[in-house]
Amino acid sequence: MKILVINGPNLNLLGRREPRIYGRMTLADIERELRELAAELNVALEFLQSNHEGVLLDEIHAARENGIAGIIINAGAYTHTSIALRDAIAGVALPTVEVHISNIHAREPFRSESMLAPVVLGQICGLGSKSYTAALYGLVAVLKAAGGEGKDDVQTA
After folding, report:
1. pLDDT (tens digit, 9 = 90+) per residue, 83-104?
2. Which of 61, 78, 100, 105 is catalytic?
3. How many separate helices (H) and strands (E) can be counted in the chain?
4. Which long-range contacts (CB under 8 A, 24 or more apart) does 146-153 make?
5. What is the domain count for the chain?
6. Closest by alpha carbon to 156, among 135, 145, 142?
7. Within a 10 A sphere around the Cβ of 146, how many other Cβ atoms?
8. Contact call for residues 94 and 67 (beta carbons, < 8 A)
9. Known catalytic membership, residue 22
């Protein structure tokens, strides 16, 4: 089973960007933590970080053909603005979990609106880097309960 972990704009700056909000862990630290958990869960991970919406869209579009069983996405600011990402997630119909390091519902009002929430399996936010590990645990459990790859057996929205 292969899971795609997507990180959107500005997440390459983790560890330096607003550490009071996002903490001191870098994206490489989070990826390392996820790799360790993935080994325990016996799943493979692919990682993508891009500041460009089109790159994120292309990767989501290709996910099913690339053998991806599910997606974990932190779309960054695109969470609140991108109908294109919402439509791509809905279009590929792969189980997807939205993650955020901070609690987007306890911040500026514009951050509490997620364009992705209506089409994802679930949303985990406010747990720091543990939002990612919680998402991986949950997504793998749902996929395994659906019979392994689970691509066509998991209701996404």
Report:
1. 999 999 999 999 999 999 987 7
2. 100
3. 5, 5
4. 148/1, 148/69, 149/1, 149/69, 150/69, 150/70, 150/95, 151/64, 151/69, 151/93, 151/94, 151/95, 152/93
5. 1
6. 142
7. 17
8. no
9. yes
Nearest to 156 by CA among 112, 99, 117: 117
Q: Is residue 151 in a domain?
A: no
Q: Is residue 93 part of a domain?
A: yes
Domain range enclosing 22 = 2-145
Q: 154 in a domain, yes or no?
A: no
pLDDT tens for each residue of 33-56? 999 999 999 999 999 999 999 999
Residue 89: CATH number of its domain: 3.40.50.9100
Catalytic residue flag (residue 78): no
Choose the catalytic residue: 22, 52, 61, 137.
Answer: 22
Tell me the one-letter amino acid at 80. Answer: H
Task: With respect to residue 35, please indicate whether it lies within any of the assigned structural domains.
Answer: yes
77: amino acid identity, one letter: A
